[in-house]
Design brief:
GMP Synthetase, Chain A, domain 3; 4-stranded mixed sheet; OB fold (Dihydrolipoamide Acetyltransferase, E2P); alpha+beta; 5-stranded mixed beta barrel
Length: about 450
């Protein structure tokens, strides 16, 4: 009997992938539960399994006290000393129970406890295994559909492919084989729930590693990958070896490597981008195939770019339903505002007109605001009909020299003061408009 029990435990351990120790503990708990049903007692009954002999011992545990209050679970020290004179208050004494002949109900209880414990251990093993595989690809077979979700058989357990993690262009039938990437593992009461995705960018990265040796051995590094699953993706790559072209390595001879990835993603278009630390160059690459005229860094803190393109490149740069610029923005991590050259030209003209208007308004100030102009000179100018800085700016050296007590040298000095004042106001007005750090393509 003992050999048969030990063999059964070892077989169960192998089948369920659960350590034998866990089954021993489950067996002990089961026997203790069965004993409580059999003896109908409130005693603290426990069981111990000996894997060497294959025997199970059931015993009642009593706590040794000075004065007994709970007869079922306590024993007086004076009585305990009759078993062993070394006992002290607070120790525990094990009292063996008669060998247990399990009845039908007790046997059923033991069986339920064992299976429950083994099932819990099996679920914990599955959780530990798959929670360590987040970001890895698994192979599954479509087993059933639950609403918009797809349930896959991935071997030891099932995984859920939620509707929002599916590619919109893909359809599946019962029995189809699916490759997906693990993105989450939830611990639920009914067991771990493994969530997989066909739309996550990490699937694209894993496929590149599988199909492109240079990516697998980290000669080519994937800096970032973004997708709109089933439609289009952009992947930024760089090389750790100057002799290896990262884009060419990913494309392969006549597109052999990238085509393997495209087939797995069922026709999803993939743009492979040369990564650059220079944000301007990186932006140009990210918006490929559109031709870019100019890149303006509008706000380096909030990461805002303005991209200027020729009129005939505007729709190409934006892409169908804004897809090209949207993916480019995600790839860079910068907000991208695209404008045509004509729109930008009109915007600059409007700004220049506004600056000119502000300068003109500023020049209408009284001569008293013109620093460096003496009081006597100001009075002579006002007597001659020159009362504002604007009027002064419009006069020539000859006009001013004709005013009594103002010579040619004084006229030149006065006009220089006026021009400097106007220029300072223009610069101040320009400073109030948003600054742009500009990088222009050659």
């Amino acid at each position: 009997m003992s050999n048969a029990l030990s063999q059964s435990i070892e077989q169960l351990s192998r089948e369920k992938g659960v350590e034998s120790k866990v089954i021993y503990e489950a067996l002990e708990d089961a026997m203790a539960a069965a004993a409580r049903k059999h003896f109908r007692t409130e005693e603290n009954l426990q069981a111990r399994y000996d894997p060497v002999t294959g025997t199970i011992e059931v015993f009642a545990v009593r706590r040794i006290v000075e004065e007994v209050e709970e007869e079922e679970t306590e024993m007086a020290l004076s009585e305990a000393l009759q078993y062993d004179d070394s006992f002290q208050v607070g120790d525990y004494l094990e009292i063996p129970k008669p060998p247990l002949e399990l009845g039908r109900i007790a046997a059923q209880t033991a069986k339920q406890v064992i299976f429950q414990k083994v099932r819990e251990a099996e679920r914990e093993n599955v959780f530990e295994e798959y929670s360590g595989q987040i970001g890895q690809v698994v192979h599954g077979i479509v087993r059933r559909f639950e609403g918009g979700n797809i349930v896959l058989d991935i071997g030891r357990t099932e995984a859920v492919l939620p509707y929002n993690e599916q590619a919109r262009t893909e359809e599946y039938r019962m029995g189809d084989r699916v490759r997906a990437v693990i993105i989450k593992v939830h611990r639920l009461s009914k067991g771990p729930q493994i969530v997989v995705s066909r739309g996550d960018p990490s699937l694209l990265i894993r496929l590149f590693e599988a199909e492109i040796p240079e990516v697998y051995d980290h000669t080519v590094i994937i800096k970032n990958a973004v997708r709109e699953a089933g439609e289009r993706a952009k992947v930024a790559v760089s090389s750790r070896d100057d002799n290896v072209d990262p884009v060419g390595a990913c494309v392969g001879m006549r597109g052999s490597r990238i085509n393997a990835v495209i087939r797995e993603l069922r026709g999803e278009k993939i743009d492979i981008i040369q990564y650059s630390d220079d944000i301007v160059e990186y932006t140009i690459n990210a918006l490929n195939p559109a031709r870019i005229a100019k890149v303006l860094v509008q706000d380096p803190l909030d990461k805002v770019l303005e991209v200027i393109v020729p009129e005939d490149q505007l729709s190409l740069a934006i892409g169908r339903k804004g897809q090209n610029v949207r993916l480019g923005s995600k790839l860079l991590g910068w907000e991208i505002n695209i404008k045509s050259e004509e729109d930008k030209k009109q915007e600059i003209l409007a700004q220049m007109e506004q600056l000119a208007l502000q300068a003109a308004q500023a020049a209408r100030r009284d001569l008293e605001e013109l620093e460096g102009l003496g009081e006597k000179t100001r009075l002579r100018l006002e007597e001659a009909g020159v009362r504002t800085i604007e009027e002064l700016s419009n006069r020539s050296v000859e006009d001013l020299s004709a005013i009594p007590m103002i010579g040619e040298k004084s006229a030149l000095k006065i006009l220089a003061l006026a021009e400097a004042w106007v220029q300072s106001r223009v610069e101040a007005a320009a400073a109030e408009t948003p600054g742009e750090a500009e990088a222009e393509l050659v």
